[in-house]
């Protein structure tokens, strides 16, 4: 049986180490080939996408005191499917520019996170010729 994240190379943008470790393991259990975690805003940039061959991402909207919305726009521009996994409510104004992107609010169930990410991947594939 195919796993929902089969072959995915996941970029995880999360600054809480325990959450990051848990998500890394969860993604691998569900078929991800690799999970690369970025925990600081200074390490977040376009080179991360190329050097790691990222195919999808889980993005916290804020790392420490820095918003990650510009990076989310980069993911959109490159057509890399992603979701937000965040402590911010989905009604927060920062998400207005990201219609159609799933927001999984912390605390969440593991199944909600995996379902959202796998749907983003499938939705992205459906839109390609």
Set out the fold topology:
Blueprint: E1 9-13, H1 17-29, E2 34-38, H2 46-52, E3 56-59, E4 62-63, E5 66-67, H3 69-77, E6 82-86, E7 103-105, H4 110-126
Parallel strand pairs: 1-2, 1-3, 3-6, 6-7
Antiparallel strand pairs: 4-5
Q: In percent, how helical is the residue content? A: 25-40%
Any idea how many domains?
1
| Backbone CA Rg | 13 Å
Q: What is the H/E order?
A: EHEHEEEHEEH
Span between termini: 26 Å
Query: What is the arithmetic mean of pLDDT?
Result: 94
Shape: globular
Strand tally is 7
What does this structure look like?
This protein is α/β, with parallel strands linked by helices and 129 residues long. The protein has a single domain, classed as Response regulator (Rossmann fold, 3-Layer(aba) Sandwich), CATH 3.40.50. The protein has four helices and seven strands, in the order βαβαβββαββα. The strands form two sheets. It has a five-stranded parallel beta sheet with strand order 2-1-3-6-7, sandwiched between helices. A two-stranded antiparallel ribbon has the order 4-5. The two termini are 26 Å apart. The model has no long low-confidence stretch (mean pLDDT 94).
């Amino acid at each position: 049986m195919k796993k929902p994240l089969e072959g995915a190379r996941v970029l995880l943008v999360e600054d809480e180490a325990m959450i990051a470790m848990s998500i890394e393991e969860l993604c691998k259990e569900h078929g991800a080939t690799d999970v690369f975690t970025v925990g600081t805003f200074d390490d977040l940039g376009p080179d991360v996408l190329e050097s790691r061959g990222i195919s999808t991402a889980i993005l916290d909207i804020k790392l420490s005191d820095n918003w990650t919305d510009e990076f989310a726009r980069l993911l959109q521009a490159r057509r890399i499917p992603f979701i937000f996994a965040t402590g911010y409510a989905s009604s927060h104004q920062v998400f207005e520019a990201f219609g159609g992107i799933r927001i999984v609010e912390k605390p969440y169930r593991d199944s909600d996170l995996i379902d959202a990410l796998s749907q983003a991947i499938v939705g992205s594939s459906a839109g390609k010729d």
